[in-house]
Amino acid sequence: MIRNTVTDVDRLAARHRPEGQPVMRQNWGKLHFMHWRVNPDLIRPYIHPDLQVDTFGESAWIAIIPFTMWDIRAFPPFIPPVPGFSSMNELNVRTYVHFNGVPGVWFFSLDADSAAAVLAARTFFHLPYYTADIELDQEGNVVDYRLSRAGDQAAEFQASFRFGERLPQAQPGSKEFFLTERYILYTQHDGKLYQSRVHHEPWALQKSVLEDLSTNIFEADGLFKPTGEPLIHYAEEVNVDIWMLERVADLKQ
Description:
mainly beta; seven-stranded mixed barrel
């Protein structure tokens, strides 16, 4: 029987390190979580039919996550960094879903400033990646992001944040845990549903204030535009291991 609820135990289980060998290792940093509360009915048409919208407080959430990554290494025992693959800036637009009680992330778009990395991610992970010009600048505790995506789904993003003090560790059942402690991504290819696991230490979140925002990325992705002010969190750095895709149907056996 397919479960249609997610418990705190399920959310903690997703955080455990998977068995087997990861296929990629990366560092993520200068990361801002920007979350808007939305009606779950607005999300439903945009996700795979086998998935359910994951909610907190009876609301779905849509997010923009800009960050940078470096020391990207692939294929055990993790080859030395390769130019064009070893570092890049990224921004993704996402929401939260679950399958049979297993919570995860569903991406509407991912932008990166490495054409080689975009091609690899589209090929091996079937993710909706785009190549874009992305700049990340920091002066003190102020971080500025700028993105420009050309082509048929041209998009612009500009934001400035001022981050502050460390927050207590997010606990199961809290909004912060729901929004940030995500260790599974779902994707589709030829109508089939897949998942990939990631593993890292729990996020060390900090307060952050949005000082400026201008973007059309929701419209460029063919989505609705959320209203109101986003909820903001900042994370300085985390080390990440990533596992290869597995077809969800195979995991049900």
